[in-house]
Amino acid sequence: xxxxxxxxxxxxxxxxxxxxxxxxxxxxxxxxxxxxxxxxxxxxxxxxxxxxxxxxxxxxxxxxxxxxxxxxxxxxxxxxxxxxxxxxxxxxxxxxxxxxxxxxxxxxxxxxxxxxxxxxxxxxxxxxxxxxxxxxxxxxxxxxxxxxxxxxxxxxxxxxxxxxxxxxxxxxxxxxxxxxxxxxxxxxxxx
Length: 191
Description:
By secondary structure, the protein is mainly beta. Helix content is 8%, strand content 39%. The chain is built from 3 helices and 16 strands. The strands form 6 sheets. It has a 4-stranded antiparallel sheet with strand order 1-12-7-10, with no helix packed on it. It has a 4-stranded mixed sheet with strand order 11-8-9-16, with no helix packed on it. Strands 2-3 form a two-stranded antiparallel ribbon. A hairpin with a 5-residue loop joins strand 5 and strand 6. The chain is globular and about 50 Å long. The model has no long low-confidence stretch (mean pLDDT 88).
């Protein structure tokens, strides 16, 4: 469980430290990274997703998506995506994160650039606005930010209505087989 108060860090909305996940090898020898399933339990969030060319943790960024999510939304963080969770509401943001116990988060690839490719700030009019992180701009072209609601995401990012909720998992319901791809991402993603 992550709880973030509705605070600002200067002009920037409060957020988690951006990170990738540890690599894991499929039985066929393909390299994936572990994934997460985020569920918003309370509040309003933006989940910033960032992918680099070639699927690694460095090199040019080829996709950045800002997902606007609300209570009840479940978002799958696919393999090879860095992610940052941002509280954009005026209440505590409470999220649940279902992840493999074998996963380790890798922070240094994002830390070296002082964060993700875009920051979410409160502009002079008091409204949220994404601004480019100049460290990425210095490295070359950064793609335009794609903004969408969680419900409008492509299916690879959605758990769907049949996926278990955090409450069901914690209650011990027999539902873990439907999310076994947390430990074996190649079951859901074919690269």
